[in-house]
Specification:
Blueprint (H helix, E strand, L loop, with lengths): L1 H12 L8 E8 L6 H18 L2 E2 L2 E9 L5 H13 L5 E4 L3 H5 L5 H4 L3 E3 L14 E3 L4 H14 L4 E7 L2 H17 L2 E8 L7 H9 L4 E5 L4 H12 L8 E5 L8 H4 L7 E4 L8 H14 L8 H19 L5 H8 L3 E4 L2 E5 L6 E12 L5 E12 L4 H4 L1
Parallel strand pairs: 1-3, 1-4, 4-5, 5-6, 7-8, 7-9, 9-10, 10-11
Antiparallel strand pairs: 2-3, 11-14, 12-13, 13-14, 14-15
Helix pairs in contact: 2-11, 2-12, 6-7, 12-13
The protein binds P-hydroxybenzoic acid (PHB).
């Protein structure tokens, strides 16, 4: 007791500083299984942030605790989150690659007094499920709205939509349909395929049979996006002149070597390209390359995690390390900074990130490496899906 009092006096004497605490951040993501590369990118983004900014906020030490959730599994996501809160006493929950995993945890945030910072899950409605959710990734409404204009401007008037049948796929389909209709185009057919689909030949046949001039597609980045784009090439759709339009999930950088020349010229819209030309991004890529070990594996979830850590550090700073979820979330409403992706703001109402969306084209550099080359910027895009989500 005596020692405790002396320590307290010493702490106050040192400029009123509070005791040094360990603030735990629980991160749930796919760290094994088919989507392990996406989880590895969460970790690379976190490690890069902590390498650049240190592991301390004020006097408090930040500790990240990881829990592996290999596939979309809402029940398991909820029990991992509960275990992190109850046993590990985490003050923050973060990560969440798949929408259903984030959705399943929103009901426990209030009672647990814990904010959730989403590094990836991209269905618009998630932020409406709890006032304690903040998102630093993107929504498929945000990324799929501009590609509708790109498709129409490319002279394509009839499109078939193909999406994974769950939250972000349904949002992507609705966003594309709304955007394309506004331009004057027509979505002639809309296919929703089970998330587990990995044989795309029958879908490719349906696309050919539809008579559409183009296909809009969304699948969550991972082995199946690679499979889908390969099937598009190998089933002769590309050579038949049926154009593929998609958000950037379909051309994540780590998939480009496997796609090879077949993906050259493919246009996508997205919030982040590793090639983004800015000093902030150069610094990020250098730190993230080091963190991931193999630069060829670096892809977009790393930037969601890097910016997510920025938000968490600001929350810890604003609460002086004390557990006050509402105060932490309120502190980042309206927060603006220059992310590796460009200028961003946490929208004070939706708590979702406002950001530029870029049109990019798969290109081959002088070094022979494939990359997403940014060719147009849609500035300061909020989330058009929020009205639909309410
Ligand atoms: C999601 O489940 O929300 C999700 C996953 C991967 C993506 C996009 C969205 O690439």
């Amino acid at each position: 007791m005596k020692r405790f009092v002396l320590a307290a006096i010493a702490a106050v004497a040192l400029g009123g500083a509070a005791y040094a605490d360990t603030i735990k951040v629980g991160v749930i993501g796919p760290f094994s299984g088919p989507f392990a590369l996406q989880g590895k990118n969460f970790k690379a983004g976190i490690d890069a942030y902590m390498a650049v900014n240190g592991k301390k906020v004020g006097n408090d030490e930040v500790e990240v605790i990881y829990r592996d959730l290999p596939a979309a599994d809402p029940a398991q996501s909820k029990s991992l989150a509960q275990e992190l809160v109850v046993k590990e006493k985490v003050q923050y929950l973060a990560g969440f690659y798949f929408t259903p995993d984030a959705m399943a945890v929103t009901p426990i945030l209030k009672q647990a007094n814990v904010p959730m910072v989403i590094f990836n899950a991209a269905t618009s409605a998630i932020v409406t499920k709890s006032p304690l959710v903040v998102r630093t990734s993107f929504t498929t409404w945000q990324t799929s709205t501009p590609i509708a204009k790109v498709a129409y401007d490319a002279g394509v008037k009839k499109v078939i939509s193909v999406v994974s049948d769950y939250g972000p796929g349904v949002d992507a389909e609705n966003a594309f349909k709304a955007g394309f209709k506004k331009q004057g185009g027509e979505v002639v057919q809309a296919i929703r395929m089970p998330l587990s689909t990995n044989d795309f030949s029958p879908i490719m046949q349906r696309i050919k049979d539809s008579g559409a001039q183009g296909v809009f597609a969304f699948l969550p980045s991972g082995p199946t996006t690679l499979g889908f784009v390969k099937a598009y090439n190998e089933n002769g759709l590309k050579s038949a002149g049926i154009k593929l339009f998609a958000p950037g999930d379909l051309t994540q950088e780590s998939d480009l070597p496997a796609l090879g020349d077949a993906a050259l010229g493919m246009q996508t819209t997205f919030h982040y390209a590793i090639s983004h030309d800015s000093p902030e991004n150069k610094a990020f890529v250098a730190a993230a390359d080091k963190a991931i070990g193999n630069p060829a594996e670096l892809t977009f979830p790393a930037v969601g995690a890097f910016d997510g850590m920025h938000v968490i550090y600001k929350m810890i700073e604003a609460t002086g390390g004390k557990q006050d979820a509402q105060k932490a979330v309120d502190a980042v409403k309206g927060l603006s900074w220059v992310s590796p992706r460009g200028p961003v703001t946490i929208d004070p109402e939706s708590r979702h990130i406002t950001q530029n969306i870029y049109l990019r084209e798969v290109a081959k550099g002088d070094d022979g490496k494939y990359y997403n080359k940014e060719i147009q910027t849609f500035e300061k895009q909020g989330d058009p899906g929020l009205a639909a989500a309410k």
